[in-house]
# Entry
Amino acid sequence: SDQVPFFGAHQAGIATPAQDRLAFAAFDITSTDAQAVQVMLGTWAAAAAQMSKGLLIGPVENTPSAPPIDTGEAYGLGAANLTVTVGFGPSFFDDRFGLAKFRPAALADLPTLPGDGSIDPTRSGGDLCVQACADDPTVAFHVIRNFARLARGTAVMKWSQLGFGRTSSTSTEQQTERNLMGFKDGTRNIKAQSTPDLDDYVWVGEETDQSWMKGGSYLVARRIRMLVESWDTDYLTDQENVFGRYKTSGAPLGGKDEFDTPDLTAKDPQGQPVIPLNAHIRLAAPETNNGQKILRRGYSYTDGIDSTTGLLDAGLFFIAYQKDPRKQFVPIQTRLGQQDNLNEYIRHTSSALFAVPPGLTASGDWWGKSLF
Ligand code: HEM
# Structure
């Protein structure tokens, strides 16, 4: 079947196998009426349940004198493994709706991190996020478009991002895809089959100060532009030293197979580390980060040409899920931002953080229902 169950303990779109396409959007709430927000979230949930089954959100041909209820572009495309994942940004818990008391400590605003100089605030943050992933781009986009339509009068889209070519495998059944730098991406990612890792690093558990978040997770999104023209002039060995892996096989330097464990202690005959000290995989590895791991679920993007330079605007729309960004994304990115060989070839251009509540139980449930 090409359907991913929408209801369950956890939201789909986190530990479920990464699909080929992404449509992501952040929304800001414009209404001051808490009830309007509830109605919108309930309507979104009902629509998401329908679309996850490959169904329209309502008839296209309802009445000749009214606009079609469903916009229609995904009609006949099936579910294409669609997942719809919704989260709340820190600003959702300001006191507009009296929800400040429900703000989890782990949803602390991300601090300014090393290398944050190119972050564009107009495509960062947001009160709500919607991550739609599917194996068909129209099916993913259809969610964002119809959510924006259902939100009319209550919330507006603040920014959005399309992605193609998943850059992370999240299941051992998937082969590892390559990112736009030509390297396999997702080799040492947390995989759906690894339940202990999901419980230890991804799903919010008893440690939370907000019981409504149990079974949920925290999403960090970063639009990371790659300076591809410059990368493409770098010689192969240097590219491999940037990551600490071989380009074709994906094996760690000094290893043979993609899934060999990187040997961070190995030295070459000259006494130099085989995996350089500033290699991306060394700095990002759990061995360097107090054992911490994250679940990466990013996509490649291209948004045409940067009109000021004529260079390609392309890169990685990085998405990571974790139990507590203060212990996971923030320290890892602090280290990467300071020391990563990759920094010469990338710019972080957007940043966002969302609390992604647990899965919905059944029809009639919606994200954050217990808060109101
Ligand atoms: C590993 C690419 C940004 C965290 C990797 C690998 C590649 C890669 C090729 C090795 C294969 C693998 O294990 O998946 C990139 C690119 C980036 C980027 C091209 C930016 C454009 C980031 C950021 C973070 C991050 C921002 C987190 C703050 C990790 C982690 C690993 C990893 C945790 C696994 C390390 C290990 O356990 O060996 N990345 N990455 N990456 N990356 Fe990145």
Observations:
- The pocket of protoporphyrin IX containing FE is lined by residues 179, 181, 183-189, 222, 224, 226, 243, 245, 262, 280-281, 284-286, 294, 315-316, 318, 329, 332-333, 336, 346 (CB under 6 Å).
- Residues 106 and 326 are 7 Å apart (CA to CA).
- The mean pLDDT is 96.
